[in-house]
Every structure is written in C-alpha cells, then in structure tokens.
Amino acid sequence: MARASIVSGAVIDGFTIGERIYSGGMATLWSVTQPGIDVPLLMKVPLTSEGEDPAAIVSFEMEQMICRGYRDRMCRCVSAPAISRGKPMS
Description:
Elements: E1 11-12, E2 15-23, E3 27-34, E4 37-46, H1 55-67
Antiparallel strand pairs: 1-2, 2-3, 3-4
C-alpha cells in the first residue's frame, strides 16, 4: 500500500495544511490553520501505511485520550477526531 501523501494547502477536517514541521518514525507534524482560530496550531498525523510500526497507532490513540483533557495556556487540544473515521488519502 502506498504511503498517504499530505501536501501544503490540503484541507483535512476543516484545517488547512501548512508546512511540515517535523517527520519522525511514528508521525509527522504539520502547521495548520482554521478560520476563527488565531493561535498557532499543529496537526499530528500518524504513519499508518502497510509495514509501519503498529505501535504508532496505539500511541496516537493514547495521546488522543490524554490530550482531550489539556486545558493549559501553553498547550491545548483543539480537535481529536477518532482515527477510525479517517479516510484514505490519495
């Protein structure tokens, strides 16, 4: 299976993708914007292609559960949709 490609300018769940900030072994981080939100935002996208470490998904889902409770002034979760409703990207 081909790795999903995310490109600058794409829109995912209402967030417009900016530049890739970081690419690691389990995920990539992207700057994103959304109308009505005027603080810097990041989107974490787990690597889910065939052959990737399945621990990436488990870790990502655990982070989603934890992040929903963030209410700190330095870091807060804006959106954390269920990974199960994700759609394959071309």
